[in-house]
């Protein structure tokens, strides 16, 4: 099914029958992606006396409880409410879901303190003069074990504050990355990249979002795509999401 999208007075074609899913699901049948020192997510049937909500155990339906944290266990999209005292819900702040995005691949740089980071210069090199609503960052090495990585206490790659400022000033509204956070795992609560991207010291960018824990297959080439940023309707600072790309044809 071919759809025509008009963007910046130009018409683009995408094939809706060929979605490119870049989300990581909760899957308790195997080792689940995990960060922030929490136990793994749990999916289990409801028990009520002798009744167990499992067809295998004699029930008419499967009726499961799910226990998880969106920041720790699944691809999730968050708004500025993630770091503000005032409560904001991504479900209310994100009111549009289709954006022109640029997929980029970056090999993180190593600082003198041994941290691996994404710098402003690297983003400038891959974005150049392109005007995009969203950026999808794939970091190297890009192995499938990102979908089951145990990130706690590993000091993963993160964005430098200068990189987040650059994306904000370039007008990027939606930042997607294949890491547990855009910030350093332990940074004394500074959250420099989060604060810079949402501009918390100025006019807060209420409609801007950060999506973490994506996985971009190596089969997906760098370049321009249309992004469908689908989110679950949780009234919370962050919610599970299923970002999906469509090639422009």
Automatic annotation (TrEMBL):
Keywords assigned: Hydrolase
EC code(s) of this entry: 3.5.-.-
Pfam families: Cyclase (PF04199)
Top-rank taxon: Bacteria
Family annotation (Gene3D superfamilies): Putative cyclase (3.50.30.50)
An MF annotation (GO) of this entry: arylformamidase activity
InterPro entries in the cross-refs: KFase/CYL, KFase_sf
GO process terms (BP): L-tryptophan catabolic process to kynurenine
The protein's name: Cyclase family protein
